[in-house]
Amino acid sequence: MNARARVLGAGRARWRVLVRLGLWSVLEAGQTFLAGYALARALDDGFLTGNARAGLLWLGAAGLAVGAGAYGTGRVYGVVAALVEPVRDRLVASVVGRGVREADAGALSGLTQQVEIARDTLAGLVLVSRSFLFTVAGALIGLFSLAPLLLTVVVPPLLAGLCLFAATLWPLARRQEAFLAADEALAAELGAVCPGLRDVTAAGAEAQVAATVAESVDAEQRAARNLARWSVARVAALAVGGELPVVLLLATAPWLLRHGVTPGALVGALAYVTQSLLPALQNLVHGLGTSGSRLTVVLRRLAPPTVPGARHPEDRSKSPSPTGPPPPATPALVLTCVTFAYGPASEPVLDKLDLTVPAESHLAVVGPSGVGKSTLTGLVAGLLEAREGAIRVYGHAVPGAEAAACRVLIPQEAYVHGGTLAENLGLFRRDPVPEAELLAAAEAVGLTPLLRALGGPGGRVDPVALSAGERQLIALTRAYLSPAPLALLDEATCHLDPAAETRAERAFAARPGGTLVVVAHRISSARRADRVLVLDGSRTACGTHDELLRTSALYRDLVGGWTARPTAPVR
């Protein structure tokens, strides 16, 4: 089936759903018409003329209409679900894709709150607007059937209330957007703070972190209060459009009766206003006023419009920089006087570190546990921000979008998601990876046995069923296929045996145009590297393996410990 046929098929299916929604809504609105008309006939043609039987029959007809309307309402909910759930699925796919590919800080709030807001508010909007239209139509037709003069009393205040309500929608949407922006900021703040609570406590930074979070909480509270103040305008719209017609009907009752309106028609008109128009207007004001503005804002935030001439964030994965691949003379990584500490009162983990890593080279980072090896990769990857100094990746400053497109980080805990193996391996690529390229990468890194066991690139992946070593192989192959030239391996092979680790590291070192920085946990990793960086506070040293054996006592101690440590198989 071609694209045109799929679009036409989807359009026909949507129209069928809308037709079903309209038919069930007509059945539901039938009770609105009979609620006032049957009451008027029961009084004028029945009880007021002494014909109780006719009056009871009209009231019975109204009761049957209520039952039919309830059945129609039940069917409406099922049709609305058929409209709303596909929209929710598309929003979830969009938010997850943007969060994974672009590291969007608002993706957490978008997925956990805003998508559900969009789903719920869209359903509420459809139900409320549909109910209001059909209810008002049924009530106005009923008023016209009873006495056209009644419309001159009911319609003007109803229109005035609707106009007043419409005037509040834009200011309400602006304040709703401000509230959601404050909610995203608070979610991002908590997302950064909660994983590091232990470090915050260890650094004695509780007061500073609490003050920062409190600012975000206060900002969200102010936004919520500004949003709540507009409830006054909604109350005024309800009073004018729904309650003023009741007052006018009562005030003009003598005049209406003198001009041919029967007592039954007047009672029926009051029933239309109090039992149909006022509840429908209340649902519209509270539903559309809140849900409609929230839906507009949320959809705009979940799917921001493309700026003409701007590059889509995913397009950056096509090349390391907007001007193409960097020239070979540009260093892959430069750290200039970089200082970092996990708190204002803490001792620096890295203190005035200078480092230059040439392009297409291989650097191993070693040192005692806790000395800052993972901190270094976190700084280069933009996950941490240096207190002092500058970091540049292929000439681009960190943090920055251009630098982010030039690097890929593989942490110790490998991330693997459900789906096919090809989907996992192509996570950093905008377009599907050609199968020949994927198979070649799997062979280079050492993933081929697992690929065959899973049934090929299209095989389904169950992350829970994989071992830690198998997950690392998938993450390594994914990074190998990334267009980013700088690969940062932070203990990314710790669950592999020495042979598998050797194969993976050699594959990255031989990657065309690639540069490798690996946090080493075995002596073999250091021996394979062009240079080795030894971290130990102020006693930082850098050189080849043989040079450091001669000049660095710390490196000799590390090598001795590695030699005595037993190796572990793939886990």
Give an account of the 3D structure.
With 571 residues, this protein is α/β, with parallel strands linked by helices. It is elongated and about 120 Å long. A hairpin with a 6-residue loop joins β11 and β12 (541-543). Residues 1-11, 100-111, 304-326 and 566-571 have low confidence and may be disordered. 63% of the residues lie in helices and 9% in strands. The strands form three sheets. The protein has a six-stranded mixed β-sheet with strand order 6-9-10-3-11-12, sandwiched between helices. Strands 2-1-4-5 form a four-stranded antiparallel β-sheet. A two-stranded antiparallel sheet has the order 7-8.
What's the helical proportion of residues? 55-70%
Cross-sheet strand order for the largest sheet: 6-9-10-3-11-12
Low-confidence stretches: 1-11, 100-111, 304-326, 566-571
Beta strand count: 12
Mean pLDDT: 76
Number of helices: 19
Q: What separation lies between the terminal Cα atoms?
A: 45 Å
Radius of gyration: 34 Å
Structural class by sheet pairing and helices: alpha/beta
Largest sheet: 6 strands, mixed
Shape: elongated
Strand content: 5-15%
